[in-house]
């Protein structure tokens, strides 16, 4: 099944293309609220972006945004809200970033602190460490900066991506980190645009010199694929996602290892991944710090396992589109399931969910995860089905066609 392109790869490719010397073509980008918002934010800053359905062309400006002043709306997207202030800060002008109420609640403080430490004039309008914020940019000389990325790796990605645009490059000492595989995506993609980051024991050194434009094919989204892999494991069917194989950049493909431990049959080939449900779904304890976007996928199907499912080390899921630990617990309880949560974990006991209305909290992953679980709980409804637009506007139609094909 052809799942849409990766959100994380599309956002990085847009940043890198905007910063590069020359024109870059992104092939099969994700077309969704997050990535369309990212592209529109680039346009607001004065970058040339042309969007055809299968290819987006970005005209790079190594010197920074064309407009000396801009108001940038980041919608619900943390990639936009965290990556683009770093891009703008390396240019020259006054740039204000705002976002939806949901994104305004999410933290950007550690990134703001690091940019300030590099000499950027950055001010918050309302709450410290939250959008709206304004950057009065006059280029960044670079140097050494400390960063705590234990709430979000996106702070580190933003600085890494902006590093080559700084006159002297950038050394980042990392004092805390989550979602490490996303940093690997960043480093691999920077290499594709001509920049080799040096790894050090305590962080990274990014050389100055800028990026070179390229032709960039976007791989399918591994977090989105998790819904179809989970659905196969839950119903004894087979889901194959082409374009996501052993060479995939995205760490979230490791969700299939969780399904394998639970009893599903998994094959990761050179250019495709296949999951087949076996009728067995075992309970387990799993650390999801590296792949926490797939925590709701697992939590939603967990009641169908033959023993408790305990998901650990996922504190930062509390600062995503919603508090995902509590949202999962709330919805599972509505379905009559016994759940416990702690600061950074959730434990779900086996049970037979009863139909309920799922409270999505405007979170695409809650909506898609509980749609998967609904395969075995007819009568489940969502209070906000439209919130899937953040990463997969066509999810419900696509999922219905998969169900029809599988006869479930
Ligand atoms: O860099 C990225 O593209 C992302 C990093 C992760 O965020 P955190 O680092 O905040 O966990 C992930 O949850 C998000 O969906 C996308
Ligand atoms: C956490 C997510 O998004 P964002 O990029 O806004 O952090 C997500 O897509 O699950």
Automatic annotation (TrEMBL):
<dbReference type="InterPro" id="IPR013792">
    <property type="entry name" value="RNA3'P_cycl/enolpyr_Trfase_a/b"/>
</dbReference>
<feature type="binding site">
    <location>
        <position position="390"/>
    </location>
    <ligand>
        <name>phosphoenolpyruvate</name>
    </ligand>
</feature>
<feature type="binding site">
    <location>
        <position position="324"/>
    </location>
    <ligand>
        <name>phosphoenolpyruvate</name>
    </ligand>
</feature>
<feature type="binding site">
    <location>
        <position position="8"/>
    </location>
    <ligand>
        <name>3-phosphoshikimate</name>
    </ligand>
</feature>
<feature type="binding site">
    <location>
        <position position="152"/>
    </location>
    <ligand>
        <name>3-phosphoshikimate</name>
    </ligand>
</feature>
<keyword id="KW-0808">Transferase</keyword>
<feature type="binding site">
    <location>
        <position position="365"/>
    </location>
    <ligand>
        <name>phosphoenolpyruvate</name>
    </ligand>
</feature>
<feature type="domain" description="Enolpyruvate transferase">
    <location>
        <begin position="2"/>
        <end position="396"/>
    </location>
</feature>
<comment type="function">
    <text>Catalyzes the transfer of the enolpyruvyl moiety of phosphoenolpyruvate (PEP) to the 5-hydroxyl of shikimate-3-phosphate (S3P) to produce enolpyruvyl shikimate-3-phosphate and inorganic phosphate.</text>
</comment>
<dbReference type="Pfam" id="PF00275">
    <property type="entry name" value="EPSP_synthase"/>
</dbReference>
<dbReference type="InterPro" id="IPR001986">
    <property type="entry name" value="Enolpyruvate_Tfrase_dom"/>
</dbReference>
<feature type="binding site">
    <location>
        <position position="154"/>
    </location>
    <ligand>
        <name>phosphoenolpyruvate</name>
    </ligand>
</feature>
<keyword id="KW-0028">Amino-acid biosynthesis</keyword>
<feature type="binding site">
    <location>
        <position position="7"/>
    </location>
    <ligand>
        <name>phosphoenolpyruvate</name>
    </ligand>
</feature>
<feature type="binding site">
    <location>
        <position position="293"/>
    </location>
    <ligand>
        <name>3-phosphoshikimate</name>
    </ligand>
</feature>
<feature type="binding site">
    <location>
        <position position="316"/>
    </location>
    <ligand>
        <name>3-phosphoshikimate</name>
    </ligand>
</feature>
<dbReference type="GO" id="GO:0003866">
    <property type="term" value="F:3-phosphoshikimate 1-carboxyvinyltransferase activity"/>
</dbReference>
<feature type="binding site">
    <location>
        <position position="153"/>
    </location>
    <ligand>
        <name>3-phosphoshikimate</name>
    </ligand>
</feature>
<comment type="similarity">
    <text>Belongs to the EPSP synthase family.</text>
</comment>
<dbReference type="InterPro" id="IPR036968">
    <property type="entry name" value="Enolpyruvate_Tfrase_sf"/>
</dbReference>
<feature type="binding site">
    <location>
        <position position="154"/>
    </location>
    <ligand>
        <name>3-phosphoshikimate</name>
    </ligand>
</feature>
<keyword id="KW-0963">Cytoplasm</keyword>
<feature type="binding site">
    <location>
        <position position="320"/>
    </location>
    <ligand>
        <name>3-phosphoshikimate</name>
    </ligand>
</feature>
<keyword id="KW-0057">Aromatic amino acid biosynthesis</keyword>
<feature type="binding site">
    <location>
        <position position="106"/>
    </location>
    <ligand>
        <name>phosphoenolpyruvate</name>
    </ligand>
</feature>
<comment type="subunit">
    <text>Monomer.</text>
</comment>
<feature type="binding site">
    <location>
        <position position="12"/>
    </location>
    <ligand>
        <name>3-phosphoshikimate</name>
    </ligand>
</feature>
<feature type="binding site">
    <location>
        <position position="7"/>
    </location>
    <ligand>
        <name>3-phosphoshikimate</name>
    </ligand>
</feature>
<feature type="active site" description="Proton acceptor">
    <location>
        <position position="293"/>
    </location>
</feature>
<protein>
    <recommendedName>
        <fullName>3-phosphoshikimate 1-carboxyvinyltransferase</fullName>
        <ecNumber>2.5.1.19</ecNumber>
    </recommendedName>
</protein>
<comment type="pathway">
    <text>Metabolic intermediate biosynthesis; chorismate biosynthesis; chorismate from D-erythrose 4-phosphate and phosphoenolpyruvate: step 6/7.</text>
</comment>
<dbReference type="InterPro" id="IPR006264">
    <property type="entry name" value="EPSP_synthase"/>
</dbReference>
């Amino acid at each position: 099944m052809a799942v849409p392109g990766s959100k994380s790869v599309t956002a990085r490719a847009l940043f890198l293309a905007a910063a590069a010397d020359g024109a870059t073509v992104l092939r099969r980008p994700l077309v969704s609220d997050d990535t369309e918002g990212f592209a529109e934010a680039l346009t607001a800053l004065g970058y040339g972006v042309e969007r055809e359905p299968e290819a987006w062309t970005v005209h790079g400006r190594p010197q920074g945004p064309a407009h000396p002043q801009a108001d940038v709306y980041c919608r619900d997207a943390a990639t936009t809200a965290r990556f683009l202030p770093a891009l703008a800060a390396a240019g020259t002008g006054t740039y204000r970033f705002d976002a939806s109420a949901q994104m305004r609640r999410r933290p950007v403080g550690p990134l703001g602190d690091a940019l300030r430490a590099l000499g950027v004039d950055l001010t918050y309008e309302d709450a410290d460490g939250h959008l709206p914020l304004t950057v009065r940019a006059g280029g960044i000389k670079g140097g050494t900066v400390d960063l705590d990325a234990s709430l979000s790796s996106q702070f580190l990605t933003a600085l890494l991506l902006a590093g080559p645009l700084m006159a002297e490059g950038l050394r980042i000492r990392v004092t805390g980190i989550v979602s490490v595989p996303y940093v690997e995506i960043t480093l691999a993609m920077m290499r594709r645009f001509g920049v080799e980051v040096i790894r050090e024991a305590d962080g990274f050194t990014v050389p100055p010199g800028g990026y070179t434009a390229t032709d960039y094919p976007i791989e399918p989204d591994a977090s989105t694929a998790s819904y179809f892999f989970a659905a196969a494991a839950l119903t004894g069917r087979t889901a194959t996602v082409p374009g996501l194989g052993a060479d995939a950049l995205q760490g979230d493909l490791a969700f299939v290892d969780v399904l394998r431990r639970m009893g599903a049959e998994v094959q990761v080939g050179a250019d495709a991944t296949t999951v087949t449900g076996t009728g067995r779904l075992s309970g387990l304890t799993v650390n999801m710090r590296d792949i926490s976007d797939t925590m709701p996928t697992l939590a939603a199907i967990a009641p169908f396992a033959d023993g408790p499912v305990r998901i650990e080390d996922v504190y930062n899921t509390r600062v995503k589109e919603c508090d995902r630990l509590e949202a999962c617990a709330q919805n599972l309880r509505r379905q009559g399931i016994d759940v416990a949560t702690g600061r950074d974990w959730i434990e779900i006991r086996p049970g037979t969910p009863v139909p309920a209305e799922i409270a999505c909290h405007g979170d695409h992953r809650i909506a898609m995860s509980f749609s998967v679980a609904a395969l075995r709980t007819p009568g489940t409804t969502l209070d906000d089905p439209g919130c899937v637009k953040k990463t997969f506007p066509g999810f419900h139609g696509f999922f219905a066609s998969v169900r029809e094909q599988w006869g479930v």
